[in-house]
Model the fold of this input.
Amino acid sequence: MNYRKDKYGNNLSILGYGCMRFSRAAGKIDIDKAEQEIMAAFRNGVNYYDTAYVYSGSEAALGEILERNHIREQVAIATKLPHYLIRTADSMERYFQEQLKRLRTNYVDYYLMHMLTDVKTWERLKSLGIIEWLEQKKKSGAIRQVGFSYHGNSDMFCQLTDAYNWDFCQIQYNYMDENTQAGRRGLQYAAEKGLPVIIMEPLRGGKLVNNLPREAKKLFETYPVKRSPAAWAFCWLWNQPEVTCVLSGMNSLDMIEENVKTASEISVGEFGSEEEKMLQKAVQAINAKMKVRCTGCGYCMPCPKNVDIPGTFAAYNRCYSEGKRAAFMEYFMCTGMRKTSSAASNCIECGKCEQHCPQHIEIRKELKKARRQLEGPMYKIGRKIISLFKLY
Ligand code: SF4
Ligand code: SF4
Done:
């Protein structure tokens, strides 16, 4: 296993275990299977285990497995505060204590604000006293490091990284999202500030393995160096020194074996310019199946009505490559899970964005189509729930 350093010089395995996708039977986590898998990863040097309050049963399963095998002290637990449920200062403590109980521990190594969407949300938490609470927890040793996880565009990501003295952050990043979400720009911005970056969705929820178009698969199969599609995606990430640890939601021993092998063999620089070129061809083959040729460059932003144009097109394209459900989830996370929506329906057709688009995309026309696909009844219900329960 290869390791990279966190902010305080601790070694983190470059492969982290995402505990959101443990196998389930009749809705319940198969704890014996999860134990076999966690222990296989542990024996192979994986020392970072990521869970969250809202991953049903995941914290409790992880806590039970670590306790049963007496390995709590040898691994780092990362879990997340469901800050969108927080109304009072007291509730931070209540959720945290519940998490410690589930995890069967008295400290959390890496504690994240789960899906922090914008600076406004962080300001709201600050007004409830979160900074004082976090500082006190760090002082007592109950929380070792504080970070945030993020889905959204790079501008807001950069603003959020500046909003507090974070210890680390977590972003969605993969070779298809190089210029969407926080993207390479966000990754480099965080790294320049000395922030370790944990990567989630390296395979876009498995789609870069299971849903590849034939042309992309052929490119991988005929390349002289043989790598599986998953190994290509991981190597692209680990070739970037700014990437600290990549989470993988592993739920089979074969998957663990393959990922551990890749994580043990790769080093920065080993993935050369030829490989980068080949991967760009694969990206083009995947993009060719897309509806809107948006590269996510962001030149059209900011929109005076706050429309997340690249985020909308990324989700709209996902409709056709990965299905409506995945697209809806991405769209809702990017545009809906915040106080002020950044949805396509905010567009007033001023046309300002189109003057800057190097791809000459008819943004207004395409936004209308995207809106028809993505802002159905589920989207409206989601927005209603957010405003009724003041979730952001
Ligand atoms: S046309 Fe719509 S998306 Fe483009 S800048 Fe104007 S309001 Fe924003
Ligand atoms: S400028 Fe064009 S290509 Fe770039 S993000 Fe905006 S719509 Fe996409």
